[in-house]
Amino acid sequence: MDFTLTDDQKMLVDTVKNFVKKDSPVERLRALRESEIGWDRGLWARMGELGWLGVPYPESVGGIGGSFTDVGLIVEQLGTTLVAEPYVPSVVVAGLTVLRAGTEAQAAELLGPMIEGKTSLALATAEAGSRYDVARVATTARRAGAGYVLSGRKEWVINGQAADHLIVSARTGGSGAERAGISLFAVPRSAAGVTVKTVNCMDSHKAGFVELADVSVGANALLGAEGQAADLLDRAMDLGAAASCCEGSGVNQSVLAMTRDYLCEREQFGVKIGTFQALQHRLVDMFVQTELCKSTAILSMIRGDDDDAEERARAVSVAKKQLIRGGYFVTRQSIQLFGGIGVTDEHDVGLFFKRMHTLAALYGDEEHHVARYAGLAGFVAGV
């Protein structure tokens, strides 16, 4: 398998890299966390003008027909400077779910404006006690005339505080954690009965807690076949996890570079501390983990949009497991090597450290992905 980037992909990487360094340095995050939504609609519109928001979508809805690998390359660079705009939750997770589930008319209505950078989306599926089980849904959608009425509560909806449309999972049948009976609905954030509470996350990003109090929607709000959304949600979670691995790869690369530069500049006992062999060994260990995370992120890019659910799940779970272990190691070692200043809010390394911990929890934590991989491999607990 050839992992060499095409000329177009190289140009894409260079364009995103230059953009984030100039227009979205790390310090921008500190200002954005005081804003209402936690990101800048103006920069989002510029990303739309550059065509990045339309990379994974076909030309029929205004996209450019790129691959998920192209998406991963963009997200990796966004991670290098902690870009706050909701590329993963809107473009990757919610948007690609709409593309697969919706009709042409629904895709045009929901995706067209987002691709232009005028709107954003959010997938609202997590509920109290659901953990990472997309089938554990208590929110209901009952038929009412020609449409539906939704009632329930969604928690930790990434970009829920700002999204123009919420892609909501709700039960039209079944109960408990049954996979049958789960449906998806496109709900305008401005719809009567929708209440969104903005919450601050540990990584300076924001999310929304969504309350649906007898929200009436038309029949055209249903995305895909009624009661058959579980597989779509599994795929959405895999896409989100794969994108998180790509972003985490970018985080690791920045942290490694920052730490290396610091060791080459900081003096102790009249010499650069980067000459101390013990610290060199620790930096080498950080490099090894960074490369491991990058290689498994590449695997998740390639398999992340695979129609073979088992192959996709294996690749994504391996990458997420490696990101959590390797990402924790890299960011924690960096904190140690920077010393006391590394734990302060004024130093950038602390922001990367917090973002890595959030990425570790998004779209499946270590326990979830290890258990899933073990199940796919046929392992039996205790044997």
Structure description:
The structure is a single chain. This protein is α+β, with helices and mostly antiparallel strands and 383 residues long. The chain folds into three domains: 7-119, Butyryl-Coa Dehydrogenase, subunit A, domain 1 (Orthogonal Bundle); 123-226, Butyryl-CoA Dehydrogenase, subunit A, domain 2 (Beta Barrel), CATH 2.40.110; 231-377, Butyryl-CoA Dehydrogenase, subunit A, domain 3, CATH 1.20.140.10. The chain is 50% helix and 16% strand. It contains eleven helices and ten strands. A four-stranded mixed β-sheet has the order 1-4-5-8. A hairpin with a 2-residue loop joins β2 and β3 (147-158). α4 runs parallel beside α7 (230-265), α5 (87-101) runs antiparallel to α7 and α8 (277-303) runs antiparallel to α9 (309-338). The chain starts with 6 loop residues before the first helix and ends in a 6-residue tail after the last helix. 48% of the residues are buried.
Summing up helix and strand content along with how strands pair, one would put the structural category as alpha+beta
Biggest sheet: strands, sense, closure?
A: 4 strands, mixed
- The CATH superfamily label of the largest domain reads Butyryl-CoA Dehydrogenase, subunit A, domain 3
In spatial order, strands of the major sheet run 1-4-5-8
Q: CATH topology of the largest domain, what is it called?
A: Butyryl-CoA Dehydrogenase, subunit A, domain 3
CATH architecture of the largest domain: Up-down Bundle
Total E-strand runs: 10
Q: Quote the distance from N terminus to C terminus.
A: 35 Å
Which spans of ≥5 residues are poorly predicted at pLDDT below 50?
none
Averaged pLDDT = 95
Order of helices and strands: HHHHHHEEEEEEEEHEEHHHH
Global morphology:
globular
Enumerate how many helices there are, as a single number.
Answer: 11
Top-tier CATH class of the largest domain: Mainly Alpha
What is the total number of structural domains?
A: 3
Percentage of residues in strands: 15-25%
What is the share of helical residues? 40-55%
Backbone CA Rg: 21 Å
